[in-house]
Amino acid sequence: MITKENIYHSPINNLPLIDNLIFYLKLVLFSVAFALLITLSVLLGKIIPSIKKWLPVLFHKMLLWLLSVELEIVGKTDQSKKSNLFISNHLSYLDIPILGSKFPLRFVAKSEVESWPLFGFLAKQARSIFIKRNKTDSFNQKNKILDVLSSNEKVFIFPEGTTSDGNRVLQFKSSSFSSVEKQNFKIQPIVILYSDLNGIPINRWLRPMIAWYGDMDLKPHLFKLVGLMSIKAKLIYLEPVNTENFENRKDLSNYLEERIREVYSSALSKKLAK
């Protein structure tokens, strides 16, 4: 008897040989280009700061090309150019190349990521801001992010603090906004939504193919994701907000959480209704 779960996982099974050959050809080209980018970063990064700044954007674009990710942008992106802090819901490690493929962003990551194999190396090359998630060091972490924001660099934070299963938006951690509390910064909220895998609309059973959460093992999940022929994702840019308009970080956090949850739930409902 064929179970419902097996049917829903069929998009990744029995991929045509030609698609596998195309992927491996792309992987070879990607690897060569990646090696060149790293070489440029090491040799010229300190001499020409803009190279260090923009190479991660190019890398993210290349990664989306390798994984055949089609990206749709919704909303007024021009306003985001004047924003300082960027936030969104968080579903997968794939969120980072998608969000980082538009313009230079410095992602905030937990300090443990710095020591991860490959991912830690890539995060350091992308100039990620590593912070320790403990109350005793919260003041230093707050100032570290504030210093970067004050230097006119754009910072990205996932206020949920972890990835969700994609069926809902998790509660935001108000501590994510401690660096902008009572400051004058603009925040650009973004909703990220994955809609299709291999031309098939994503539903509750297919969502774990993209969403990486809980105690999922990274390696098998990554191999399954790489085995997909195509992925469609959507970025919905919401109206930016000014941090000065909020009494404290909790009010700011609650407002942004409500807006992102509302838009994500609405977009999810419309997608499932099609």
Q: Can you offer a commentary on this structure?
A:
The chain is α/β, with parallel strands linked by helices. The protein has one domain. It is 40% helix and 16% strand. The protein has 8 helices and 9 strands. The protein has helices at residues 4-8, 17-44, 49-66, 95-99, 119-125, 138-150, 218-226, 249-273, and strands at 69-74, 85-88, 106-110, 129-131, 155-157, 186-197, 200-201, 231-237, 241-242. Strands 1, 2, 3, 4, 5, 6, 7, 8 and 9 form a 9-stranded mixed beta sheet that branches. Strand 6 (186-197) and strand 7 form a beta hairpin. Helix 2 runs antiparallel to helix 3 (49-66). The longest helix has 28 residues, at 17-44. The radius of gyration is 19 Å and the shape is globular. The model is unreliable at 1-10 (pLDDT under 50).
Short descriptors:
alpha/beta, 9-stranded mixed β-sheet, 8 helices, 9 strands, 16% strand, globular, disordered N terminus
Short description:
The protein has 274 residues and is α/β, with parallel strands linked by helices.
- Number of beta strands: 9
**Mean pLDDT reading:** 87
The secondary-structure class comes to: alpha/beta
Termini, distance in Å?
29 Å
Helix content: 40-55%
Q: Report strand %.
A: 15-25%
Listing every helix as H and every strand as E from the N terminus to the C terminus, the arrangement reads HHHEEHEHEHEEEHEEH
Note the quaternary state here. Answer: single chain
Uncertain runs are: 1-10
How many H/I helical runs?
A: 8
Give the biggest beta sheet. 9 strands, mixed
Count of distinct structural domains: 1
Shape category = globular
Alpha carbon gyration radius: 19 Å
